[in-house]
């Protein structure tokens, strides 16, 4: 009986002792971890709630030559998530998908795709208001991240020259791509504290500060850029053309003041992006320059010493047969001086002059003024053009190249070549970055010949020339029209043309050169003097006023100066 009473008492004491020992062990373990070994727990906590994240840098601005912004970065928010955490909150998916305007199946697919990873984007570069509305849902694993998005104040007017960046702020086209390293900053790193849902609740410390990108000042004048854009777009629409280009260049420095193309694109409106509109036709598209090349044929003739501006060439009966090909003029001009060959744009006259010169002298002249090589503008996709070596020229090639067939150039190349005539024979390489220094690279034409060519080009843009529609009141204009049949599938199409005009103002002491091309017009004519010269007149009359360039013939009558409206459409 006594033994039976003793056993339950012993068991009770044993259980109490074990509980006391266990409690003591736990207390000792807690004291060890929190007093003598507290660093361990702190590190474990930090590993779960402290994270090192990237701190986005500010991309440098792109400015025009007068400090007007062409590309700026604005702060935006991006929505991201921790896939593992979000996967466990499946009941929250319908609310999140509805807010992000995607289907639940699409959200589930994204989560599965990022399984095993710690990071995934849900939506990039949204407005702060939208980001706050998503954050207010308080969904586990969903957080916000500050980023920057590019905004282009000039919109379509400067789309091709400025280009755009992708969602990661990396340049994709235009200056944004060409000068990406200059504009890009260096990301910083910071340590942040996150809550159990993965949201950043506190910035603990900055490990390294982000380095902002550097600003870039372009040679572009936003006012002239918009003026050229407006007039070119209107001309392309008026003539139902396939496209067009316009380039304005300062002949003293090589600075490109305007470069526009049609069709265009608005870099701010990415929903309607079409990759075929991205290319900058002024440097990527080749064309045969037609009669705008004749001044260089005449320059080779004058340089030979066998011709003068008054030398005569017989163009009767308005055509000449070379091999099986007949070269024609618009009509029979009879005997023409070299000056009038330019004024009347005689193909027969240019061909006969070229055939009296050696092939090598023609080729030397054309390559000397930059045809067949890149302008080194730095723009993506620039091509060098095409001019075959003279030993590959047949007699017909020798003749047709004198009036711009059998050679391929870009608009910027043509502008550079005309700048050499305007700049008293000195070549300047085009630049897209502002420079106040006069750049006389090297002489490619004798000064006397450039004076003679400018006189001839004045006649060509005068009342008896093919470029009279380029006339500007109170200013002397020198320029040349061009009209070429388009090459389609290896054959020249009878009803497909490109109209061109290349010219300079003021002719007495040129400051600006402009090249205009209108591609494949279908209404209102196709001659360069009809469709391209008026664009030159309208843009140059406005640019001369904007730059305060004094008239060189104040009493000269002419067409009314265009009114300059400088309000760009974004």
Model description:
Helices cover 35% and strands 22% of the residues. It is an alpha+beta fold and 570 residues long. A hairpin with a 5-residue loop joins strand 8 (188-194) and strand 9. The termini are far apart. Among the domains are: 75-83 and 114-151, no CATH class; 222-269 and 277-546, Beta-lactamase. Helix 1 crosses helix 2 (38-49) and helix 13 (338-344) crosses helix 18 (447-460).
Features:
22% strand; 570 residues; five-stranded mixed sheet; elongated; Beta-lactamase; five-stranded antiparallel sheet; alpha+beta
Question: Layout of helices and strands, plus pairs?
Answer:
Elements (H helix, E strand, L loop, with lengths): L1 H35 L1 H12 E6 L6 E2 L5 E13 L1 H6 L4 H8 L3 H10 L6 E7 L1 H8 L6 E10 L7 H4 L1 E2 L5 E3 H5 L1 H4 L4 E7 L5 E9 L7 E2 L4 H17 L4 E8 L5 E7 L18 H4 L9 H11 L7 E3 L4 E4 L2 E4 L6 E3 H7 L2 H10 L2 H10 L26 H6 L10 H12 L3 E2 L14 E2 L3 H14 L17 E11 L2 E15 L6 E8 L8 H4 L1 H14 L24
Brief characterization of the structure:
This protein has 570 residues and is α+β, with helices and mostly antiparallel strands. A hairpin with a 6-residue loop joins strand 20 and strand 21 (512-519).
């Amino acid at each position: 009986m006594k033994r039976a009473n003793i056993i339950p008492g012993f068991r009770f004491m044993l259980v109490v002792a074990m509980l006391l020992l266990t409690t003591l062990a736990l207390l000792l373990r807690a004291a060890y971890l929190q007093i003598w070994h507290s660093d361990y727990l702190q590190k474990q906590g930090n590993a779960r709630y402290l994270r090192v994240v990237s701190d986005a840098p500010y991309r440098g601005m792109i400015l025009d030559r007068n400090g007007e912004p062409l590309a700026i970065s604005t702060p935006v928010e991006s929505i991201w998530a921790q896939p593992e955490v979000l996967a466990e909150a499946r009941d929250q998916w319908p609310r999140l998908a509805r807010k992000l305007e995607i289907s639940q199946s699409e959200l589930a697919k994204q989560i599965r795709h990022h399984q095993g990873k710690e990071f995934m984007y849900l939506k990039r570069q949204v407005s702060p208001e939208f980001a706050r509305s998503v954050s207010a849902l308080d969904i586990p694993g969903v957080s916000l991240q500050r980023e920057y998005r590019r905004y282009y104040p000039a919109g379509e007017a400067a789309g091709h020259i400025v280009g755009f960046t992708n969602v990661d702020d990396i340049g994709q086209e235009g200056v944004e791509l060409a000068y990406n390293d200059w504009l890009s900053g260096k990301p910083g790193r910071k340590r942040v504290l996150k809550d159990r849902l993965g949201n950043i609740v506190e910035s603990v410390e900055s490990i390294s500060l982000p380095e902002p990108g550097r600003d870039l000042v372009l040679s572009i004048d936003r006012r002239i850029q918009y003026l050229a854009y407006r007039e070119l777009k209107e001309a392309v629409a008026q003539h139902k053309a396939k496209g067009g280009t316009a380039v304005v260049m300062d002949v003293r420095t090589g600075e490109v003041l305007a470069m526009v193309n049609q069709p265009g694109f608005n870099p701010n409106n990415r929903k309607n992006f079409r990759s075929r509109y991205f290319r900058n036709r002024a440097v990527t598209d080749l064309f045969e320059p037609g009669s705008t090349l004749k001044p260089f044929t005449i320059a080779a003739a004058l340089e030979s010493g066998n011709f003068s501006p008054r030398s005569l060439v017989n163009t009767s009966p308005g055509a000449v047969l070379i091999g099986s090909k007949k070269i024609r003029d618009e009509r029979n001009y009879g005997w023409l001086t070299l000056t009038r060959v330019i004024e009347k744009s005689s193909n027969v006259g240019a061909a006969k002059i070229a055939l009296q010169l050696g092939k090598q002298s023609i080729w030397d002249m054309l390559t000397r003024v930059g045809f067949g090589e890149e302008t080194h503008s730095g723009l993506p996709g620039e091509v060098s053009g095409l001019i075959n070596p003279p030993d590959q020229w047949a007699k017909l090639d020798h003749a047709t190249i004198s009036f711009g067939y059998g050679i391929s150039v870009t608009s910027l190349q043509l502008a550079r070549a005309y700048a050499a005539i305007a700049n008293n024979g000195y070549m300047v390489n085009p630049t897209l970055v502002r420079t106040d220094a006069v750049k006389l690279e090297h002489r490619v034409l004798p000064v006397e010949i450039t004076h003679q060519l400018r006189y001839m080009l004045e006649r060509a843009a005068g009342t008896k020339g093919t470029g009279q529609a380029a006339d500007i009141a109170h200013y002397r204009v020198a320029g040349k029209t061009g009209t070429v049949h388009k090459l389609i599938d290896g054959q020249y199409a009878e009803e497909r043309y490109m109209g061109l005009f290349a010219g300079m103002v003021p002719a007495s002491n040129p400051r600006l050169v402009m090249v205009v091309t209108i591609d494949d017009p279908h209404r209102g004519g196709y001659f360069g003097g009809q469709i391209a010269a008026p664009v030159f007149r309208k843009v140059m009359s406005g640019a001369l006023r904007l730059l305060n360039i004094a008239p060189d013939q104040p009493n000269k009558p002419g067409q009314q100066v265009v009114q300059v409206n400088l309000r760009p459409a974004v």
